Amino acid sequence: MPPLDPTAPSAPDAGGQRPIRTAILGYGVAGRFFHGAFLRVDPAYEVALISTGDPERAAQARADHPSARIVADPQEIAAHAAELDLVVVATPPASHVELARLALRSGLDVVVDKPFAPTSADGAALIAEAASLGRRLSVFQNRRYDADFLTLQGLLADGTLGDVHTFESRFEWWKPSGERAWKATAPVSEGGGILFDLGPHLIDQAVQLFGPVTELEASLRRVAVDATPLPEGAPENVAHLVLTHASGVRSQLTMSSLAALEGPRFHVSGTAGAWRSHGKDPQEAALRAGTLPDAPGFGREPEELAGELSRGVELSRTAPGTGDYGAFYRVLADALRTGGPVPVDPQDSVYVLALIETAHRTARPAHP
Question: Radius of gyration (Cα) for the chain, nearest Å?
Fold first, then answer.
């Protein structure tokens, strides 16, 4: 990243450096809550531009970020590149590659929300282009900062579970009426379907915990909830993956929008014991309720959602964890200012995309 312009009017942060001038492209759930809220409270950043073509979202963006320029067309980042340092691409997946490439060619560093790209080849091409242009590129794998995932990492690091042999991970909810907005209509070729939606989280977590995958089995289904015929090419809404890692661990991953009764979020079995957790990380719910990330206790799990540990005799609770999506942006700020590593190597996301492609290519038929 080239030196930031010292003549710019932005006030310095606590470390005496001018904030990183950031554009957020898209102001739906991702742009508003997963990016905008954390950038809003981090003094290392200034939200300078927000792109959304939706009038209600534009009004919300103005309320959340009064000093930001609001534009309807994300392509306008090219015209305002001299006023920016970083672009966050939080639009639907089909536009990720085009907008990330535009930002890179405009001389800007880039964060792309998941899924990184519609194909692993597209993702690899973006990485190569960023390198050729001398720009920094990362992918927002925020579930690496979930409270329960951080707790599980600690249990594995200290050997509490012994040698893990089976890892079960689920993202399930009850949406019989289907997804809204672009998720309801996007085909797999444009990043549609529950595997592209949730697989980048669950697969990435499994690979981070247990390493590369040597075998993959997949079952992908589009389950109808009434007698209405499914549209041609409708993507899957239920997915099951079984990954065999080179380490010997088997990961069983379940994604479903038709689970009226959720199973454990994590269920991990090892030679010395087992651990399970229920419910989802509290950060998203808190953000949607209007709580900002700098509020006291933000991200801390309630006691009733603390994980359960068993060594085969009795059940005990592990301490409630604290999720921290803001850590991504703290590490990123340091990377952009010092040249250190970005918080998520985009090659990790290309690897996950390749596994998703394998699942789509080898899965049992998508229709039951």
Answer: 21
CA distances 47 to 95, 189, 272, Å, are 21, 32, 48
**Residue 103 CA: distances (Å) to CA of 110, 135, 182, 231, 356:** 7, 10, 23, 35, 26
Question: Where is 42: in which H helix or E strand?
Answer: none
User: What's the token pair of residue 3?
Assistant: 């030196």
- pTM of the full structure: 0.91
pLDDT in tens, 6-27: 334 455 665 668 999 999 999 9
Helix (H, G, I), strand (E, B) or coil at 217: strand
Question: Residue with structure tokens 């209405």?
Answer: 228
- Bridge partners of residue 276, in order along the sequence: 267, 308
The dihedral region occupied by 233, where left means phi > 0, alpha psi between -120 and 50, and beta the remainder, is: left
Report DSSP letters for 55-124, one per residue. HHHHHHHHHH-TTSEEES-GGGGTTTGGG-SEEEE-S-GGGHHHHHHHHHHTT-EEEEESS--SSHHHHH
Of all residues in the chain, what percent are helix, strand and coil, respectively (each to 5)?
A: 35, 20, 40
Query: From CA 120, how far away is CA 135, in angstroms rounded?
Result: 20
Comparing 29-38, 158-167, 192-201, the range with the smallest average pLDDT is: 192-201
Residue recorded with tokens 């990485």: 127
